[in-house]
Write a structure and sequence with these properties.
Helix content is 80%, strand content 0%. By secondary structure, the chain is an all-alpha fold.
């Protein structure tokens, strides 16, 4: 027996064999949107499969089960933000400019990728249980702290930065950038959405950079970069 449905099924199976990386990337992208919208418990594998270019059977083949898919999506969410940091090529910038670029990137990335923030919020609901199972997440985030430590070291050695712990600095940058997205609905509902227009976001980003630099830089460095 043959027909359009059978031929279409063969084409899909051929795609699995010819481009497994592309199929997995498609599944992860769809699953990230579903998990970010509905959480781990609310997301349905049938719904994820229906929106992909493959079948539920192949999702289980690649990722094991729903928990495995969620963990892989969480890893991908962190990988994207850290890859973006790597592409900034901060090692070749003076420390103040490097820190400025990093803060701008973090604020802008989080603002444009609310699904990342929602994934982190969901993982916090689960007390970080799935993150603890992932060596990949620990490794990729360790690199982020190492990069910030290098910027801080270069800043101290040049007399531009006060003694600041990289982990605490990362906390401050993340907190300001995270709240901007995580509490957007409630904040705008109470106080209006002026801060969340394109112009409002640009102003917020500029002020976040200024706050971080005032926290980190010595007075002479602030005067020099005013």
């Amino acid at each position: 027996m043959s027909g359009p449905g059978l031929q279409g099924d063969k084409a899909v199976r051929g795609g699995w064999k010819q481009d497994p990386a592309g199929v997995q990337a498609n599944i992860i992208a769809v699953a990230m949107a579903e998990f970010a919208m509905n959480g781990l418990s609310g997301a349905r594998m049938d719904e994820i499969a229906a929106k992909t270019r493959t079948s539920k059977r192949m999702i289980y083949y690649y990722f094991g089960d729903k928990d495995g898919l969620y963990r892989r999506v969480l890893e991908e969410a962190y990988r994207k933000v850290r890859d973006g940091e790597q592409r900034l090529d901060l090692d070749h910038l003076p420390p103040v400019e490097a820190l400025k670029r990093l803060v701008e990137f973090t604020f802008d990335h989080h603002s444009r990728h609310p699904e990342f923030i929602r994934m982190v919020m969901i993982e916090n609901i689960h007390h970080g249980a799935y993150m603890e199972q992932s060596d990949a997440i620990r490794a990729v985030n360790a690199g982020a702290i190492e990069k910030l430590e290098d910027i801080c070291r270069r800043g101290r050695e040049s007399g531009l930065f006060r003694p600041v712990e990289a982990v605490e600095l990362h906390w401050h940058i993340s907190a300001l950038s995270f709240f901007n997205v995580s509490n957007r609905a409630t904040f705008s509902g109470i106080f209006g959405d002026a801060l969340f227009t394109p112009a409002g976001q640009q102003t917020l980003m500029r002020h976040v950079v200024e706050m971080i630099l005032r926290y980190v830089c010595t007075p002479p460095a602030l005067e020099r970069h005013a």
